[in-house]
């Protein structure tokens, strides 16, 4: 009897080993046959960041879409910078950016909500900060409605993005609930039939929960970061990691894109703490090319580079290396 059980045990171990090996080989072949076509490259353009760098935000955007010929852009609408007083809207900068986009045939992803790209991430007007959670939600819904109604007639707008990484605990933000976020999604769906993009941290966050609310899922892709504990740090992830995760959720969304591809330094101190040109060593052309190659190997269809305002700031200071290195990516 003991011999019989031993034989069954070894049979089980052998079968499990064969199955595991088959799964490993299948996964290896599958991952190594992923698409290697060049993604469509675009940029995320933050007019608030451009202003912080001392630039004219409209002129900088014009150079990006005219000189670099960028045709795919993600543009956040900053609630606190547009509705300074309750019910009083200043759309002058977004209007100018939308007009330039239409003039240059740019495809736009417009980001709306209270949490949008660039630190401190949440852009809630001072007058709305004093509201309770319920009333602040109603205030941001009104802003979203105003924004969608204003720009849904634009031929450049190809999709909306509602908030940015809404459930990832990064930035100076109050956490919103899944129900509040879904209310924002439902509002945009009721106002316009364009696809809605939802974004997540590609490195650290869960993807599936956000994908359930999205037509398109956007993921971040950062390589070189910095924190107080480790200093400069490179994520120990491979392109396979992103490709594998993207395939797992493709039944939930029509497309997975790289919404933020690192193409500037992860600043370890305030930018103004040293001359701009000294920051170049924190993110060089070689690092830029490594990140572009990494994104290509991940096999996703679109990748929006993060840092075009930075390239232009360096160019204005006399260092156009990153600006010129990026140029070929956008040539059709």
UniProtKB/TrEMBL annotation:
<keyword id="KW-0812">Transmembrane</keyword>
<dbReference type="InterPro" id="IPR001000">
    <property type="entry name" value="GH10_dom"/>
</dbReference>
<keyword id="KW-0378">Hydrolase</keyword>
<dbReference type="Pfam" id="PF00331">
    <property type="entry name" value="Glyco_hydro_10"/>
</dbReference>
<keyword id="KW-0119">Carbohydrate metabolism</keyword>
<keyword id="KW-0624">Polysaccharide degradation</keyword>
<dbReference type="GO" id="GO:0004553">
    <property type="term" value="F:hydrolase activity, hydrolyzing O-glycosyl compounds"/>
</dbReference>
<dbReference type="GO" id="GO:0000272">
    <property type="term" value="P:polysaccharide catabolic process"/>
</dbReference>
<protein>
    <recommendedName>
        <fullName>GH10 domain-containing protein</fullName>
    </recommendedName>
</protein>
<keyword id="KW-0472">Membrane</keyword>
<feature type="domain" description="GH10">
    <location>
        <begin position="79"/>
        <end position="174"/>
    </location>
</feature>
<feature type="transmembrane region" description="Helical">
    <location>
        <begin position="9"/>
        <end position="31"/>
    </location>
</feature>
<keyword id="KW-1133">Transmembrane helix</keyword>
<dbReference type="InterPro" id="IPR017853">
    <property type="entry name" value="GH"/>
</dbReference>
